[in-house]
Specification:
α3 packs across α4. A hairpin with a 2-residue loop joins β6 and β7. The termini are close together. It contains 7 helices and 7 strands, in the order αβαββαβαβββααα. The chain has 282 residues and is of the alpha/beta class.
Length: 282
């Protein structure tokens, strides 16, 4: 698998008290408060249109957000209402990305799908995609989108069935523990030349490192937490978190009474996922 390089970095997680940022195809200045000012022309261009290379996504704002997928089939697509606002808050606090306070509800056939780089789906019940929805989902993923499906204990059978209809030629496979999605921590100094940082470098493992894979938040059947995915070339386009209840870990702690360390582990994994979604290329 090709390496993600520091040149593709869209995020700086604060290390040693610094706030620095790397933006692909644009310089990024970071103010003392960690925000991204728009004084530089390149930052203004970024605010006009954010694009990943080879992507048809049309994000015309410097503020990114997560799309919550409203799907058919009867499942509770709206489960965990505090999960995504909490993840977005963690992204605002821990990265130099400008992200919204709330997620955006999207459908697979609506134009709003093309306004978000990351779509999250969850639930406890049945999922069904129409033929047109399958076509549009595959097209969106091929052109730069990232789908994160989180089984909230009950969605597994129908999700596997439907995603196999979307990608009959690309089966779900377990994402190897060496994949950057478990190790993403980027640091980019914009005033220095760009160089490729090897994946063995400590920068990828200092903060949000999951050497054993996705964290297990809740127990159900005594099975280990697993992360499955679909790859198009070297790019991970679908990530399926299974037997973990990752989204539950993002919710307000009083909802499930999770200990602080599980809530923190879930948020850190979510930061890794979003970081990968907005920085990975085909």
């Amino acid at each position: 698998m090709n390496r993600l390089t520091a040149a593709l970095c869209l995020v700086c997680l604060p290390l040693a008290g610094r706030s620095e940022c790397g933006m692909r195809n644009a310089e990024c200045g970071v103010a003392e408060d960690g925000s991204i000012p728009l004084a530089r022309p390149s930052a203004r261009r970024l605010a006009d249109t954010f694009r990943t290379p080879h992507s048809a996504l049309r994000i015309r704002s410097s503020t990114l957000t997560i799309g919550r997928l409203h799907y058919d089939g009867g499942g509770d697509w709206y489960a965990g209402p505090s999960a995504l606002p909490n993840l977005l808050a963690a992204l605002r606090q821990r990265t130099a990305l400008s992200v919204a306070e709330r997620e955006r509800v999207v459908t697979l056939t609506g134009p709003e799908l093309w306004d978000v780089p990351y779509v999250f789906m969850t639930g406890h019940g049945n999922v069904h995609f129409s033929d047109e929805e399958m076509k549009q989902l595959r097209r969106w993923l091929e052109q730069g989108g990232f789908l994160h499906a989180d089984d909230d204990y009950g969605m597994d059978k129908s999700f596997r069935r439907e995603i196999a209809r979307v990608f009959p030629d690309h089966p779900l496979v377990e994402v190897p523990l060496s994949h950057p999605i478990y190790h993403l921590v980027y640091d980019f100094l914009p005033d220095h030349p760009l160089v490729e940082v090897p994946l063995s470098h400590p920068i990828y493992h200092l903060v949000y490192d999951f050497p054993r894979g996705i964290p297990k938040i809740h127990e159900h059947d005594g099975l280990p937490a697993q992360g499955f995915g679909i790859f198009l070339g070297n790019r991970l386009v679908v990530y399926y978190s299974y037997q973990t209840d990752l989204g539950d870990g993002w919710e307000d702690p009083e909802v499930h009474h999770d200990p602080p360390e599980l809530h923190e582990a879930a948020l850190r994994m979510g930061v890794n996922l979003f970081t990968y979604a907005v920085s990975a290329t085909r």
